[in-house]
Hints:
The chain is of the alpha/beta class. It is built from 8 helices and 8 strands; from the N terminus they run E-H-E-H-E-E-H-H-E-H-E-E-H-E-H-H.
Amino acid sequence: MIVVIAPEQDVRDEILILNQLFEAGLEYYHLRKPEKNYLEHCTYLSQVDSKYHNRIVVHYFHELINEFNLKGIHFQEQKRRDNIDNPGRYFKALNMFGKTISSSFHELEELATCEFEFDYHLLSPVFSSVSKKGYEGRGFDVNHIDKRIIGMGGVTTSNLAEFIKLGYKGVGVLGGVWNSATPILDFNTMKDYFLQNNKN
């Protein structure tokens, strides 16, 4: 399983590249744009071919799930801590039927003991980040945790075997795609690797 995370700042030809990633088989795109407001999120989504909306997971403005046919919603760490203790109330106004719910974690213990059943969990940083300077990898081994965990941090086409060895069911990639001169080619390399290793 491969999750591609949106670049925080818009990059050149971003929507064009994104549609090409979807064409190449991207199933999970996390729309994480902390500086965009609700309307700017709507504009962004409207620029993406609507047939791919059901592969997009939003980090901000979860109510977008009521306006667009999206894949699901994602809780960043603080938002999870603030809301997931009373999920019934939080999800009441959201049309969540058939949608995914995921969350970010930065501590192994917190992920292991979280009682809410997320569809998948993003854990970082496994290795030192490609996109964030000074974000040092911690080499989390998750083989002992019976949850669907996606490793993030320092993902490249050359270290995928390390993630599998540490027990991850897939990778979350940002810099490894968006900082690449050949993003579609690199995505296809990652996708093929996980298909061959039956981890997708």
